[in-house]
Each structure stands twice: as structure tokens, then as C-alpha cells.
Specification:
The complex is a heterodimer. Chain A contains eight helices and no strands. By secondary structure, chain A is an all-alpha fold. The model of chain B has no long low-confidence stretch (mean pLDDT 94). Chain B is built from eight helices and seven strands. In chain B, the strands form two sheets. Chain B has a five-stranded mixed sheet. Chain B has two domains: 108 residues, Ubiquitin-like (UB roll) (Roll); 129 residues, Alpha-helical ferredoxin (Fumarate Reductase Iron-sulfur Protein, Chain B, domain 2, Orthogonal Bundle). In chain B, β6 and β7 form a beta hairpin. The radius of gyration of chain B is 21 Å and the shape is elongated. Chain B is of the alpha+beta class. The chains are: A mainly alpha, B alpha+beta.
Chain lengths: 220, 257
């Protein structure tokens, strides 16, 4: 933590952006596997993919990289947000009314919501897989398919899941173009395209993940 | 026109401040914001009160001295103007106008609406000198500069250092100011000699002074009276990274005697 404090503001943000953009690419892989749940084959394809992700040695190494990415992004996020708060000890009495995108000012808050979801997600799946938490009766610790079906059979859980992904979408909408800006990749030629693709990607992630519980709730 | 003003009053840096309400009447819509405040101050002086202190100098939008956070926006509701270029016709008759000083740890309040912006001077000083040849006056265009680069450099150089970017930023970050200052020298051949060291030193100074980190909300660009683009922040980030990653390390020459 001490060395993290010593990094300059730009270095901290660049590391955070690199970790964040790595997590963004990971979401795409995760979505691809999750969408296999929609195939009507009793979860055979999904389970195969999940087994591959859980056993392939290269993926195992990447799992550590992924956890490191999460840790880096979260720790720097907390640190940077703390410093930002300290930079204005006396708040304005009148609410700021500058023309900015509303949610860009709430990256910390949306980040916290996504983090809470991440903890819940770990409790529901990862901790069961590694044996820290016992699986629910009748389901094996590696049986992600039936575990998912069981979770999504509860409407309030599905709703919570969808709300979390709406907040993740809001987070990503600003995050992707912001990451490019932090890394210095802002140019009049392509910045508009980056913003558009970033927004489209965040919509794709939110809709893509949300479609699964909605489909299961309506058709299963 | 008549207005109710809610103004931050603070005797000095050591005392606590508070919002005080004042009424001003019979204000011409063509009077400037400062003329309106002058009218209030005249009234306060006549009644034996303490006039409201605020920064101003050129009153034509070029010096960067004026400030004021008006109704939640630095330099008030109009785009691309400083407070001294703001007129009372921009408000509605009977409006309540909230006036606060810039708020940032690095900009402590000196009195009422005046803040100490010498942090910006310190950052400029940290940037250091620019090497120039001495001797006779050089011929014009001895150093070729592409027109596009000179235009971009000049756009960055229009920064008047007023601090609206810091005031508007939800993190009180000074990235647009330093981005502009780094850019206008980094874009020109004359600024190349010290470019790598300059950006590192200015960023280090900015961090030390307690400004926040940029979270790319772009409130700075929206409020900059000179319309300086956030692409200057990206350029500074590029300059900073290339300096950190590729610049030669400074050699420490040891005294051999």
C-alpha cells in the first residue's frame, strides 16, 4: 500500500485503466460462456465450457492474472477516490451544475455496487467450487449449470442480478472511453468512435447478461 | 432588476465562514456582474459594513484574476466567458444568486471570495526554464513550425490560469491547467529540450500540492472560459508516460576531486 501511495497520480490512473481494460475483455469471454446456458441441451455445452475454464492450465494461470487485475483496479480505485475526496475538504453549498455526463461523477458508487455483486458472485459460485462453502443439497460443487438454474428460479435474485448489470453497464459506459483518455489515446480522428463503441459494448454486456435470467424465468 | 445574493463571507483564512444573504435593487441588465457587486459593496460601505472581497483585475477576460462559483458553475451560467465578462441580463429579475469561492485544498480561502491560487505558480515554476540561444536577434522562421502545430500550441496557450477547471472538477484536479501548460511547450520545437523533465516535475508538483486525480468527467472543458480541450490532458498523459518509460535517466556526476 505504501508504494502505491508513492506512485504519481497519472501512474496510478494508468495502472487502473490497464487493469480495467483487461477486465473489460474478460467480461466478453464470460458472457460468451454464459450465453451457452440458452442452448437447449440440458447444459451439456455450458458444462463442457465451464469444465475447460476450470481445468485448463493456461486458464488457471490467467485466473491469477484476473484476480490480480480485480485487486489492482479495486485498490487503486479506493485510493484515488480517497485522495479525490481529500482534495476538496470544504464542499460547495450549491450543487455543481456543470455540463457533464451525470454518471461519470459516480464511478466510485457504481464501482461499489459492482464490487458487492462480485462478492455475492464469489459466494454463489467460486467459493463453492473451491470447497470453502458447501454446495446446496442435491447439487455437486462443480455443477455450475444446476446451481445457476436454482439461483435464477428465485425472481428476486434474478432482479438483483439484472440491477447489478445495469450498474455495471453505467460504470463501463464511462470507463471504456475514460481508459483510452487516461492512456493518452485521445484523437479527434477516433475519439468519437471510441465513445460510441464503449457505449455499445456496455449495452451489449448489460443486455447479454440480463437476457439469461429473463429467458430462464420465462421459458424454463 | 432586483436580486437576492447568497454570498460566502469569511473574514480570513483562520476563521470559519458562512453564507450571508443580501438584497440588491435597481440593477441595470447591462451592468456587469462585478458592477453589481460594486453596487452592493458601496451600499455596505455607506452603512458602515464590511465590503465583500473578490478578485478582479483587467475586467476584459484576459488576465485570469477573477473567479467566483456562481450558482454551481465557475464564472457563472454563460459558456466561454470569465466572471468579468458576465452581465446581469444572463439572470432573471428576482433571481437568487449563490456566490462561493473556488473550493479546493490547494486553493485555500484568503478572505470572502478570494482564494490563494499560488499553487498554479508553483507548478509553473516546477516546470523550469526553456532553453534559448542567446546572441543576436534570430531571423524569423529560422525554426520551422507546422501551421497545425502552432495553432494547437496557441489554443493550449490561451489558458489564463484562472482555476475554473479545478473549481468545476468533482475531484478538484488541476489536470486541464497542467495539460494546457505541458502541451503548449511540448507541441513546439522550442519546448523539446526540457520536455521530458518538465512534464514529470509539473505532475510531481501537482500531486504534492494536494490536487485530486482526474476521472475524466470533463467538467473542466465545459467550464474553461478559453474552451481548452481535454485532448491536452491526454497529450500530457502521453508525454508523462513516454518520459517515464523511455527518457534517459539523469546521470549523477560525482565530484572527482
Amino acid at each position: 500500500m505504501n508504494t502505491m501511495l508513492l506512485y504519481s497520480s497519472i501512474t496510478k490512473k494508468v495502472l487502473m485503466a490497464l487493469a480495467g481494460l483487461f477486465l473489460v475483455t474478460f467480461l466478453c469471454v464470460h458472457l460468451g460462456i454464459n450465453l451457452m446456458l440458452l442452448k437447449d441441451d440440458g447444459g451439456r455445452m455450458f458444462t463442457e465450457a465451464a469444465t475447460f475454464m476450470g481445468t485448463n492450465p493456461l486458464i488457471k494461470v490467467f485466473e491469477i492474472v484476473l484476480f490480480a487485475g480485480f485487486l489492482l483496479h479495486i485498490l487503486f480505485g479506493l485510493l484515488v477516490s480517497g485522495q479525490n475526496r481529500a482534495a476538496r475538504p470544504t464542499a460547495y453549498a450549491f450543487r455543481n451544475s456543470s455540463e457533464t455526463s451525470f454518471f461519470s461523477k459516480y464511478m466510485f458508487h457504481t464501482g461499489i455496487i459492482v464490487f458487492i455483486f462480485l462478492v455475492l458472485h464469489f459466494i454463489d459460485f467460486y467459493f463453492i467450487k473451491v470447497g470453502i462453502i458447501a454446495p446446496p443439497p442435491g447439487i455437486e460443487s462443480h455443477d455450475f449449470y444446476h446451481r445457476t438454474l436454482l439461483l435464477f428460479s428465485t425472481p428476486w435474485y434474478s432482479l438483483l442480478y439484472i440491477i447489478s448489470f445495469v450498474f455495471l453497464g453505467i460504470h463501463l459506459n464511462h470507463a471504456i472511453q475514460s481508459g483510452f483518455q487516461t492512456l493518452g489515446w485521445n484523437h479527434s480522428k477516433y475519439m468519437e468512435a471510441v465513445k460510441f463503441i464503449g457505449s455499445a459494448y456496455s449495452v451489449l454486456i448489460t443486455v447479454g447478461f440480463s437476457v439469461i435470467p429473463i429467458y430462464l424465468l420465462l421459458f424454463k | 432588476m432586483n436580486f437576492t445574493l447568497k454570498i460566502w463571507r469569511q473574514k480570513n483564512a483562520g476563521t470559519k465562514g458562512q453564507i450571508v444573504s443580501y438584497d440588491v435593487t435597481a440593477i441595470s441588465p447591462d451592468s456587469s456582474f462585478f458592477e453589481m457587486l460594486d453596487t452592493l459593496n458601496q451600499k455596505l460601505i455607506m452603512s458602515g459594513g464590511d465590503p465583500v472581497s473578490f478578485d478582479h483585475d483587467c475586467r476584459e477576460g484576459i488576465c485570469g484574476t477573477c473567479s467566483l462559483y456562481i450558482n454551481g458553475r465557475p464564472h457563472g451560467p454563460e459558456k466561454g466567458v470569465t466572471t468579468c465578462q458576465l452581465h446581469m441580463r444572463s439572470f432573471k429579475d428576482g433571481d437568487t444568486i449563490h456566490i462561493e469561492p473556488w473550493r479546493a485544498k490547494a486553493f485555500p480561502v484568503i478572505s470572502d471570495l478570494i482564494v490563494d491560487r499560488s499553487a498554479f505558480d508553483k507548478i509553473i515554476q516546477a516546470g523550469g526554464y526553456v532553453s534559448v540561444n542567446t546572441g543576436g536577434v534570430p531571423d524569423a522562421n529560422t525554426i520551422p513550425v507546422p501551421k497545425e502545430k502552432s495553432d494547437e500550441a496557441f489554443d493550449a496557450a490561451t489558458c489564463i490560469g484562472c482555476g475554473a477547471c479545478v473549481a468545476a472538477c468533482s475531484n478538484a484536479a488541476a489536470m486541464l491547467f497542467i495539460g494546457a501548460k505541458v502541451s503548449h511547450l511540448a507541441l513546439l520545437p522550442q519546448g523539446q529540450v526540457e520536455a521530458a523533465k518538465r512534464v514529470e516535475k509539473m505532475v510531481a508538483c501537482m500531486d504534492e500540492l494536494g490536487f485530486g486525480n482526474c476521472s475524466n468527467t470533463y467538467a473542466c472543458e465545459a467550464e474553461c472560459p478559453k474552451g481548452i480541450s481535454v485532448s491536452n490532458i491526454a497529450r500530457m498523459n502521453r508525454e508523462f508516460l513516454s518520459s517515464k518509460l523511455f527518457a534517459e535517466k539523469e546521470k549523477i556526476i560525482q565530484d572527482s576531486f
